[in-house]
Write a structure and sequence with these properties.
By secondary structure, the protein is an alpha/beta fold. It has helices at residues 16-29, 47-54, 76-98, 110-115, 121-129, 146-151; strands at 6-10, 34-41, 58-63, 104-108, 136-140, 154-157. It has one domain: 3-Layer(aba) Sandwich (Rossmann fold). It contains 6 helices and 6 strands; from the N terminus they run βαβαβαβααβαβ. The longest helix is centred in the middle third of the chain and has 23 residues, at 76-98. Pfam families: CobA_CobO_BtuR (PF02572).
Length: 177
């Protein structure tokens, strides 16, 4: 039985979700079962979701009902709704993982949810400690807490040196989503 590691992709640069999508495709290409969980996103309107599902990768999402960034500007009532939605998503992930069918779990944008205090850091650390030993877990998003980085076996910090947004270029279909 292989040992599943914990990987973190964080930082201000572009490409964290893209790296996780690549990891998911690579695992699926080796007939591994993958669960791709998106925090603070909807399944609709994202180009990678369609292809992941076509490849037989299970995708679940939560907390994307309110697309307000920065999250600090989210009204308190809506913030509580997002917290509830993300807690339900985390419980759903736990139920999926309990079946021990998966080789790889992606927690996309979980670091952002942690940084915004929409998910309890202790709950994620406990989840990681209790994971099946063979399960590989990838956590993405800006602002990974130091405790998560200490627990991880691999941490990649993606640095922005230049970005189209800084030049007034907005998001583009097929490139950014």
């Amino acid at each position: 039985m292989k040992k599943g590691l914990i990987q973190v992709y964080t930082g201000e640069g572009k490409g964290k979700t893209t790296a996780a999508v690549g990891q998911a495709i690579r695992a699926r290409g080796r007939n591994q079962k993958v669960l791709f969980a998106q925090f603070l996103k909807n399944k609709e309107g994202s180009g990678e979701i369609a292809i992941l599902e076509q490849l037989g990768i299970k995708v679940i999402a939560g907390g994307g009902k309110y697309r307000v960034f920065p999250l600090e500007k989210l009204p308190q009532k809506k913030k509580e709704e997002v917290k509830s939605d993300l807690n339900h998503l985390l419980e759903r992930i736990k139920k999926e993982i309990e079946r021990k069918e998966y080789d790889l779990l992606i927690l996309d944008e979980i670091n952002v949810a942690l940084h915004a205090h929409l998910v309890e850091e202790g709950a994620i650390l406990d989840f990681l400690r209790a994971k099946p030993s063979s399960l590989e877990i990838v956590l993405t998003g800006r602002g990974a807490p130091p405790s998560l980085s200490r627990m991880a076996h691999l941490v990649s910090e993606i640095i922005k040196t230049k970005h189209p947004y800084d030049q007034g270029i907005g998001t583009r279909i097929g490139i950014d989503y």
